[in-house]
Amino acid sequence: MKIWIVHQHAGVPEHYGYSRHYYFAKELLAQGHDVTVVASQFNHKAKKPVPLDQEGTIIDTRHDGVRFIWIKGPTYNESFVKRLFNLAHFYQGVLGSWQWRKEEKPDVIVGSSPSPIAALGAARIAKKLKVPFVLEVRDFYPLTLTKIGKLPGFHPIVLFSALLQQILYRSAKHFITVVPSGGAQLAEVVKNPPPVTFIPHSIPRINAPSAKKPWQERGDFRVLYTGSHGLADDLENIIDAFNDLDKMGADPRIKLELIGDGALKEDLIAYTKGLGLLDRRVFFKDPIPQQEVLPLLRGADCLILSRHDSKILDYGISLNKIPEYMASGAPTIMGVTTKDDPVTKSNCGIVVPRGENSLGLAKAILKISEFPQEERDAMGQRGWAYCDEYLSHETLAQKFLSACADAADMETKRAPLAYTKAPMSK
User: Fold this and answer.
1) Phi and psi (nearest 5°) for 137?
2) Domains in the chain, start-ordered, CATH in brackets?
3) 208: exposed, middle or buried (C-beta count within 10 Å: 0-12, 13-18, 19+)?
4) Alpha-carbon distance 159 to 153, whole Å?
5) Residue 241: pLDDT above 90?
6) Cβ pair 74, 89 in contact under 8 A
7) Cα gap 148→142, rounded to integer Å
8) 254: which residues sit within 8 A by CB, 6+ positions away?
9) Is the pLDDT of residue 423 over 50?
10) What pTM was computed for the model?
11) For 191-238, how does the pLDDT look when each residue is reduced to its tens digit (9 = 90+)?
């Protein structure tokens, strides 16, 4: 099967970013399928271009046999206007990347929607080539803008994203969602939607974690967070938990390391400094390449994440970091309750209910630090085993292939979609 995947922020493991589609493509390539990934050369996470040996506006490369077509685009940091310009440039690049190519058209085109504008480019190419379009829904627009970004429903960007949603949903022959109840959200917007496949974020298969010595014999009890430092990540709540630990007189060797970058990082550093925790209980570190994340996590005693309360969480949660945390073999503390979360299902950590805030997190950290090492190892082992069985790239690449094959088969069998309500009304 010949598949094109358009994901603006896709990347390879040696870079900082998203490598899900690289691993899927690699698995399918080994089975004889032909997969091309189209991505922006400007790395959204690292905020710098991906280093390549070639020059040009559209660069055709191979990474471990996986074909990537990189579209060069303008740089941006935290400037919203520059980012919009980058999105528009990638969209135009997607439309133009095959105008001069004389190659066999694919059986299906997949558009991934961290950026709905990029996914729209994929939908337009699919329509032009008369091949089925699969939409991978990673963020629910415009809900993400109204419930997390707190934009009003009448904001022009919200209205524009709602229009994009309608076009993308109408164009898709199959939906892929990264959250367990994503199909329920789609059903709220689309009457009689096409098939939906749940494919959560995945992880490479790795060896089982080794038993650790008690942290008291090794030094500090290391609590790690990896990933973005943005509005949705609720890092202030995690920092507050360590302030609570300080007030409780907890062992000063219980420390937090925040690895990553994002729009709020400097503000968070200033906030931590104001609490008197900076470089004493809380440490900020630079982002690292994707392939270095798991080795780093395996050295942790506990891993932590939190999310702001939001309507979107009613549909489930599937962050890139969750399978990484679970595969590492360290217990996970998750400051959010949601449907069918893998931490609860695998019993590999502690889930702090919404509403308990920083004090609930602090108590969970203290509880895990006081467990016997054998109990911490057992929790981590359960998380690793769950990932190995259900969240490996090998397993989920097959679900991805099945969704694409279904879309190709369903191309002539679906009636036009109808909308049940205004997309931004939830």
Assistant:
1) -90, 105
2) 2-202+393-419 (3.40.50.2000), 215-390 (3.40.50.2000)
3) exposed
4) 7
5) yes
6) yes
7) 10
8) 220, 221, 223, 242, 245, 281, 365, 366, 369
9) no
10) 0.86
11) 778 899 999 999 988 888 988 889 988 889 999 999 999 888 999 999
